[in-house]
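sry for the spam today, last one i promise. C-alpha cells for design, 142 residues
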C-alpha cells in the first residue's frame, strides 16, 4: 500500500485530541507508523513525571494512523477494540518517539505493536503498547 503524505495526516488531526496534545505522525503505511510528541507541562501528572495516559494517547494514535493508511479497499474506517500498555520508564522533558508495526492486517482486524522512547534515550523504550483495531465495513441496506 502507498504511504500517506504526513501533511494529509496533519490536516486530518485539526481540531482533535491529536492536535490538542501536539502529536505529529511522521510516517504511515506499509505496516509501519511513526510519530512524536513534545513533552509539555500539560502532559505531566501531578507528580511531575509524564502521565501514562499521554504515552497511551501517542501510541494509540500512531496505531490508528497506521490502520487508516492500510485499511482494506472498501472499508469505511476502524475503531480500537483493545489496548494494553506496559510502562518501564518516564520522562519530564524533550520529546517522545513512537514506532508502530503491524503484526496482523486482516479483513476484520489489525493488531499493532508499539515502542515509545524518550528522545534522550532512543535505545531504551519507556513503554510497550499493543492494540487491536476493528475494521469497519458499510452495512448492506436491506
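last one done:
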Amino acid at each position: 500500500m502507498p504511504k500517506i503524505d504526513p501533511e494529509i495526516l496533519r490536516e486530518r488531526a485539526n481540531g482533535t485530541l491529536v492536535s490538542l496534545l501536539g502529536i505529529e505522525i511522521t510516517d504511515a503505511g506499509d505496516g509501519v507508523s511513526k510519530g512524536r510528541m513534545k513533552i509539555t507541562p500539560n502532559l505531566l501528572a501531578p507528580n511531575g513525571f509524564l502521565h501514562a495516559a499521554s504515552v497511551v494517547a501517542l501510541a494509540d494514535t500512531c496505531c490508528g494512523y497506521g490502520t487508516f493508511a492500510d485499511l482494506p479497499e472498501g472499508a469505511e474506517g476502524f475503531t480500537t477494540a483493545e489496548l494494553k500498555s506496559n510502562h518501564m520508564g518516564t520522562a519530564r522533558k524533550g520529546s517522545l518517539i513512537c514506532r508502530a508495526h503491524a503484526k496482523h492486517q486482516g479483513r476484520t482486524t489489525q493488531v499493532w505493536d508499539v515502542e515509545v522512547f524518550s528522545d534522550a534515550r532512543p535505545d531504551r523504550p519507556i513503554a510497550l503498547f499493543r492494540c487491536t483495531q476493528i475494521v469497519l465495513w458499510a452495512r448492506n441496506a436491506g
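Helices lie at 6-13, 17-21, 52-69. ok im logging off now
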